[in-house]
Specification:
Elements (H helix, E strand, L loop, with lengths): L1 H20 L2 H7 E8 L5 E3 H10 L3 E16 L2 E14 L2 E16 L2 E11 L5
Parallel strand pairs: 1-6
Antiparallel strand pairs: 1-2, 3-4, 4-5, 5-6
Length: 127
């Protein structure tokens, strides 16, 4: 079970690197066809909308994404990841940055772990 957690940790690191590299093909492979993500502003994205908005449109450019305070809980072929995410980048050419709490759900498939759902919330001021 610890090996599976390490695989998920590496996948999350690879996901952060793929955001900065604008690697849409990576996300095409790991996002489930029924993927849903809700950002800190409450906007919901499906798989194609996520790839378009965060990678292909050019509106977002991550300089870095750091994940820490991570917990991975396995439930059979599912895993729930909670962590703190610190983003730095530009949105429509303007710098942005912030810290968020994130919950991400993965399901193990014959092709490896697939990202099926996620949600981010702005970190409370006292953190």
């Amino acid at each position: 079970m610890n090996d599976e957690r390490e695989i998920l940790r590496r996948l999350l690191d690879d996901k952060a690197a793929a955001l900065a590299a604008r690697d849409a093909a990576f996300f095409g492979r790991i996002l489930d066809e029924k993927f849903r993500y809700i950002n800190a502003g409450g906007r919901e994205f499906d798989k194609s909308g996520y790839i378009d908005f965060f990678l292909e449109s050019g509106r977002m450019q991550w300089h870095s994404q750091i994940l820490d305070d991570m917990t991975i809980r396995r439930y059979g072929d599912a895993a729930v990841v909670t962590c703190r995410v610190v983003d730095r980048g530009t949105f429509n050419g303007e710098p942005f940055g912030g810290a968020f709490r994130s919950t991400q759900v993965f399901v193990r498939s014959p092709d490896g772990w697939r990202y099926v759902s996620g949600q981010s919330t702005t970190v409370a001021a006292e953190e």
